Amino acid sequence: MVSSLVILSFVVQVPKVACSSHSGSFQRSDTSLPYMQLNEVNAARTLRDWMQLPWSIYANDPNWIPHLKQDIAKVFDPEKNKLLKEGEAIRWVLYDDQATPIGRIAAFINPKVAHTDKQPTGGMGFFECTNDQAAADRMLEAAREWLKARGMEAMDGPVNLGERNMFWGVLIENFTDPPIYGANYNPPYYRDLLERYGFQLYFKQLFFKRSVSVKAQPIFHRKYAQLERDPDFEVRDVRGLSTKRIAEDFRTVYNAAWVDHENHKAMTSQTAMKAMKAMAPVMDPRIVIFVYHRNVPVAFYVSLPELNEIFRYVNGDLNWLGKLKFLWHKWRGTVQTMTGIVFGVAKDWQGKGLEAAMIVYAEKEIVDKRIYRDTVLTWIGDFNPRMLRVCGNLGAVNYRTMATYRYLFDRIKPFERHPIIEKK
């Protein structure tokens, strides 16, 4: 926890309550009164309970695959999450009257985005709770008060103190498929807990899947053939390219493709290099595809092996045993699905068939060679109609839906959903 945080502990007050957070036992004089205690995560015991709570929530859910403890720990480590240099974060764990953890939550302020909307907006995330509205309200109220005390006027959630591809949103449709790596998963009642508290839908997150048995449309093959005949174009994977070259090509396309997005900031070479180095241990260069025009990168389709098909065997802990299991399953070829983590076309080249060319290239070089069975795409917001149309054109189907909610502290203020990205 960063040193600038104010130590807070929120307790529902009941008459003559005696408790000992060190002994692990809680007692109360009037057993007819409801009792919940919300403790800040600031000691070994509360940290352990906060991290372990999901195992009790999902004990009987065969689809649940726990997030890696190491991934979550990095979010709250000032040495690894640079957003904590200027931002703040706090975590709480909620106990019942038997000292049993029944809920957890985190609240944070992302300095990069907190003041970019119509009102200062903080975040709530890593929410887990038993099916108890009073318990959920207790934690959400604590997060709201903490954010309000720091000048925030709204709260988004569940979100991450970091990139949107990790720990973002609440599942609202399709509870029958295991989650992809980094994606949140939850019981259906989480939606009710949040909406009853007062959260409103800010945007939907749509996940798409495309089976390799679905062949690319003939028009895609025509587009690919046109580019293949044109000496100014090249479609290729990144085998043989250095990490530095891949990072710089990625940065070039990213900055040209996302220029229309709200609050877009150009990616630096340092950030791109950091991202590529992070992906390097799990990257399969055969499924990272670029389109070049006169040697300038103008489009990419970056996929990774679907790591949760391995991580389901490590039980959320990439310790030495987890790493051995990971290497075993990687060598064994356990992964049959690739996850498209990012797809982009430079603004000046959008609508000219480059996405079709990459799909056909993947079909010829990956699908036909039976390297992977299916491909899934990380989420696309319902505020991005252009990319939704691209997914539809590619023959991908929306197979699960998540939601990002927003709660305005001023309950009279008109609520507005995320603005639609318009083509400028």
Please write out the topology.
Blueprint lengths: L9 E2 L5 E4 L4 E4 L8 E4 L3 H14 L11 H7 L12 E8 L5 E9 L11 E9 L3 H17 L4 E4 L12 E4 L15 H9 L2 E12 L6 H12 L3 E5 L5 H15 L11 H11 L8 E6 L2 E10 L2 H4 L8 H13 L4 E9 L8 H14 L6 E8 L3 H9 L3 E12 L16
Parallel strand pairs: 7-8, 14-15
Antiparallel strand pairs: 1-4, 2-3, 4-5, 5-6, 6-7, 8-16, 9-16, 10-15, 10-16, 11-12, 12-13, 13-14
Helix pairs in contact: 3-4, 5-10, 6-7
How would you characterize the overall build of this protein?
This protein has 424 residues and is of the alpha+beta class. It has helices spanning 44-57, 69-75, 133-149, 189-197, 218-229, 243-257, 269-279, 308-311, 320-332, 354-367, 385-393, and strands at residues 10-11, 17-20, 25-28, 37-40, 88-95, 101-109, 121-129, 154-157, 170-173, 200-211, 233-237, 288-293, 296-305, 337-345, 374-381, 397-408. The strands form two sheets. Strands 1, 4, 5, 6, 7, 8, 9, 10, 11, 12, 13, 14, 15 and 16 form a 14-stranded mixed beta sheet that branches. A two-stranded antiparallel sheet has the order 2-3. The radius of gyration is 23 Å and the shape is globular.
Properties at a glance:
29% helix; 26% strand; 424 residues; 16 strands; disordered N terminus; single chain
